[in-house]
Amino acid sequence: MTMPKESESPKGDTPTGDAPTGEAPASTYTGITRWTIIVGTLGAILLAIHQLFNIALFGVVLIEGRYLYLLGGIFLAIAFLTFRITGAKSGPAPLYDWLLAVASMGVAAYFAWTAEMSLDGGWEYAPPDQASWASLVMYLLILEATRRAGGFTIFLFVLFFSLYPTFADHMPGPIRGFQADFWQTIPYHIISSESSFGIPMTAFGNLVIGFILFGAVLQRTGGGQFFNDLALALVGRFRGGAAKVAIFASGFMGSMSGSVISNVLTTGAVSIPAMKRTGFDPRYAGATEACASTGGVLMPPIMGATAFVMASFLSRPYVEIALAAAIPSLLYYFGLFAQIDAYAARKGLKGLPPAEVPSMRFAAKEGWPYLFVFGVLIFMMIGLRQETLAPFYATALLLVINQVLHRFRFTGRSAGDLVVAVGRSLAELTAVLLGIGLIVGSFSATGLAGTLVNDLVFIAGDNTLVLLIMGAITAFIFGMGMTVTACYIFLAIVLAPALEQAGLNQLAVHLFILYWGMVSFITPPVALGAFAAATLAGANPIRTGVEAMKLGGVIYIAPFFFVLNPALVGEAPTWEVIVVLITALLGVGFISMALQGYVSLIGGLGSGATGYGARIVLFIGGLFFAAPANDMIGLNHLELSAIGLLLAIGPLVFAWRNGRAEQARELEGDAI
Predict the structure, then answer these.
(1) CB neighbour class for 98 (10 Å; exposed up to 12, middle 13-18, buried from 19)
(2) Fewest CB within a 10 Å sphere: which of 275, 365, 394, 401?
């Protein structure tokens, strides 16, 4: 699976700035539209640098509210220049979109100018008439931008919940809230720090913007090709190598991009044909790519935008979120790897031809700058605790290296394409976050969040497992209609407090709802990630989704494990974390091999009643190995592991005998 030349790459990670398949490339924006996007994006990035580095140029120091208004106004304007009224990301901006862009900047400038007066005068509760009308204009602009960037489903959610305070007192008991009239509600949404310009936009302005910039620059300076070459060098030669490469490459790319669909469309354009060429069934190839791309959004060090919003919600350093997510991510990818290895062994699939696999020496020689940049990024985040500034330093270093190395050096055109692509990504995220902020504001204004928490706990009857199952179903349903970040923010308000009130670890709870919000990307009937991969693979979408459910099975059970035992998110003494991780890896390995009906390095479990019985017993044994000890189960970790071992011994011996018999048949065939 050699990478195409940069000029031919379908992946969109080249300096040309071309977008992934199905998305308009940055170069489609021309003339004044292109230059406006470039100037606006560079201005917003410089504004963020000025604010976050405390530069105080010409003695100007911006209060946070003023900074967020200016940042939001710029990207809201860019959103109207990049997204057409149909939601498409291409085509020239008509006059009415220019007017909407100008209106966005104008009304944002008004609120930025009056930010101190607003703060001192309590305008969120008693605004002057001018501020009320400006709030209405901003509210309507946010709704329209959310519809274009996020889709009609998110728009309906935002519209309903943003107006909820106006009829909250007429709702049934469990969802009744404090009532406010329209002209109280709208200014509260725009002026208060609890709604559109609250936690989501604060996370965006302080953390997200730097990491989105870093991820985009990394991809377009050859980072995507390096990670693909690295994956090829690591696992390309082994059985099922093409699929194993997809795991690593999509994991790396997904962590940078934070988007399941774009990850599928970029890495899948190369990985899926390679898997099919080496013997993988089309639906299995599509399912593998969908699962690998989904897991990338959950994988440190970047994890997309959602992890930064989580850090703001929890008032914890981002690095703690990333470290906590490391073990669940490892379990997910280990389970996926084990299934692919078992599948390849069962089907007798080989690795990629040596001619298509670069050496580790070549990959390291070509990609050492990226490893060095990642080292600087991680050192600044963990060693210096400068997570806000780290991505800007890493991006600057990456750009310097890029201009030194001839292979990926930017031209004026490709640099412009990069800025346009970054601006479009940031504008899309801003539009969605401003819209979701309206939901946050409604829950704050009506006091509904506290009411729902109490009702959920009451319905569950103080049964933690029932509450978790209810939470998982809720997260799955909302995940079908929302982006990952939007789903997480909604559930962090509604569901997380109820789970925390049940005595569960706060960090584990927030990761739990994040994981279950992601499940819908590989689970029919929606399964957007699996359906996108099925299109590339030429496979049936539903069958690909069902296969993805099997391959990504760990994502359904791992959240229950780490929310019941926080050791799996690092919230325990080191020795306990190590012990729990080892047994969890064993358990996940057994579960994965049971799902595929083959125990790697030993033999197959066969078919028929006996084979399926062995698979079920091995699966249950894996659950006992991976299950965390807690008061609800009533067994300690040693007892659970002992039960798991006793259950697993029989299927393992059965697989060993089948493997020996298969070897004997092969020897007889060779002798003949």
Answers:
(1) middle
(2) 365
User: How many structural domains is the chain composed of?
Assistant: 3
| Least confident residue range of 202-206, 238-242, 631-635 | 631-635
Q: What values do phi and psi take at 604, rounded to 5? A: -85, 160
In angstroms, the CA 281 to CA 91 distance is 38
Whether 222 and 315 share a structural domain: yes
The two three-digit tokens of residue 101, written as one number? 């862009």
pLDDT tier at 510 (50, 70, 90 boundaries)? very high
627 pLDDT above the threshold of 80:
yes
* Domain span including residue 271: 206-407+437-572
Cα–Cα dist 199/441, whole Å = 10
Q: How many CB atoms are closer than 10 A to CB 159?
A: 15
Q: Where are the alpha helices (DSSP H) in 53-63?
A: none
579 or 211, which is more confident?
579
Domain stop point among 177, 201, 225: 201
Residue 610 identity (one-letter amino acid): T
User: Whole-number mean pLDDT of the chain?
Assistant: 83
Tell me the pTM. 0.74
What is the Cα–Cα distance from 348 to 389, expressed in whole angstroms? 49
Q: Are residues 470 and 601 in the same domain?
A: no
Q: CA–CA distance from 227 to each of 231, 255, 290, 304, 371 (Å)?
A: 6, 12, 18, 17, 10
Cα distances (Å, whole numbers) of residue 526 to 186, 371, 595:
33, 37, 23
Q: What are phi and psi of 630, to 5 degrees?
A: -160, 170
